C-alpha cells in the first residue's frame, strides 16, 4: 500500500503534495517503480523524456558534460525529489544526465499525468514553479561560488554540505561516500587537485579518511576555511 502515491510520505517533499486525492490516484495507477543500481544512468544528457522520476530511495548525481569532456555535477537529488521535471514541462531534451550514486528506487510518472494536472490544478502549477525557482537559486549560488571561492574553500564547503544533508555513519564518516572524481566534479576542479587538497586537509587534522570515506575531525576549522577565514 505504501507504493501508492496517496499513501507515500515522500510526496510531502515535492510538488505532488499539491495534487488532489483523485489526481494522485491517477498518477499512482500510471506510474512504474524501477530499481537503479549504483553507477547506472536514469537518463542521459540530450534524452527526450516521456515522464519524470520521483526518488523513493538513494541519491542521484545530476551533471552536465563540458566541452573538455569533464562532468560538472550540478546537484545531488535525494529522497523525495522529482527529476526531469523541467525537461518534460518545457518539452525539451534533457540538459543534464542523472546517474545513481548508490542503489536507488525511483517512480517513473508518465508525462501525461503531470501535464494534465498542470492544466487543471493551479496549486500544483504553483508548487512546480516554486521547486524550479529553488533550483534556479541553487544554480545561482553555484555560479557565484565557482567564480569567487578558491578550490580549497569549495572542497571544504562540499564536505560540510555532505555532512549537513546526509549525516554521518556510526563510525563518524560521511554517510554518503563520493569518489574523489565526483568531489572534483562537484567543485569544478581536476581530480588530482581534489586528491591533493583532501590529503592536505587530513594532514592539518581537519578530516580523517579510510579509503574513499571521509570523516570530519575539526568542523569549526573546516567552516572557517569554507568561509575564507
Task: Describe what this molecule looks like in 3D.
The protein has 229 residues and is α+β, with helices and mostly antiparallel strands. Helix content is 43%, strand content 21%. The chain contains 8 helices and 10 strands. The strands form 3 sheets. Strands 1-8-3-6 form a 4-stranded antiparallel β-sheet. It has a 4-stranded antiparallel β-sheet with strand order 2-7-4-5. The longest helix is centred in the middle third of the chain and has 27 residues, at 122-148. The mean pLDDT is 89.
- Label the structural class: alpha+beta
Helical region count? 8
Fraction of residues in helices? 40-55%
Order of strands across the main sheet: 1-8-3-6
Average residue-wise pLDDT: 89
Report the count of strand segments. Answer: 10
- Overall outline: elongated
* First and last CA, distance: 52 Å
| Low-pLDDT segments, ≥5 res | none
Run of helices and strands: HEEEEEEHEEHHHHHEEH
| Strand coverage percent | 15-25%
Global Rg = 19 Å
Largest sheet: 4 strands, antiparallel
Amino acid at each position: 500500500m505504501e507504493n501508492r502515491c496517496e499513501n507515500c510520505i515522500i510526496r510531502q517533499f515535492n510538488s505532488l503534495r499539491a495534487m488532489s486525492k483523485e489526481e494522485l490516484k491517477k498518477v499512482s495507477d500510471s506510474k512504474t517503480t524501477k530499481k537503479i543500481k549504483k553507477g547506472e544512468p536514469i537518463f542521459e544528457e540530450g534524452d527526450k523524456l516521456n515522464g519524470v522520476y520521483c526518488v523513493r530511495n538513494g541519491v542521484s548525481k545530476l551533471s552536465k558534460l563540458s566541452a573538455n569532456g569533464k562532468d560538472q555535477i550540478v546537484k545531488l537529488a535525494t529522497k523525495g525529489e522529482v527529476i526531469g521535471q523541467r525537461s518534460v514541462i518545457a518539452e525539451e531534451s534533457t540538459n543534464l544526465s542523472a546517474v545513481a550514486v548508490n542503489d536507488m528506487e525511483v517512480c517513473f510518472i508518465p508525462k501525461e499525468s503531470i501535464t494534465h494536472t498542470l492544466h487543471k490544478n493551479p496549486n500544483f502549477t504553483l508548487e512546480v514553479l516554486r521547486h524550479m525557482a529553488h533550483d534556479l537559486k541553487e544554480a545561482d549560488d553555484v555560479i557565484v561560488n565557482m567564480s569567487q571561492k578558491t578550490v580549497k574553500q569549495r572542497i571544504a564547503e562540499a564536505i560540510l554540505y555532505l555532512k549537513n544533508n546526509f549525516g554521518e555513519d556510526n563510525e563518524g564518516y560521511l554517510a554518503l561516500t563520493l569518489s574523489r572524481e565526483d568531489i572534483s566534479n562537484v567543485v569544478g576542479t581536476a581530480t588530482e587537485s581534489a586528491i591533493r587538497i583532501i590529503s592536505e586537509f587530513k594532514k592539518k587534522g581537519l578530516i580523517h579518511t579510510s579509503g574513499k570515506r571521509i570523516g570530519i575531525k575539526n568542523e569549526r576549522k573546516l567552516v572557517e576555511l569554507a568561509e575564507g577565514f
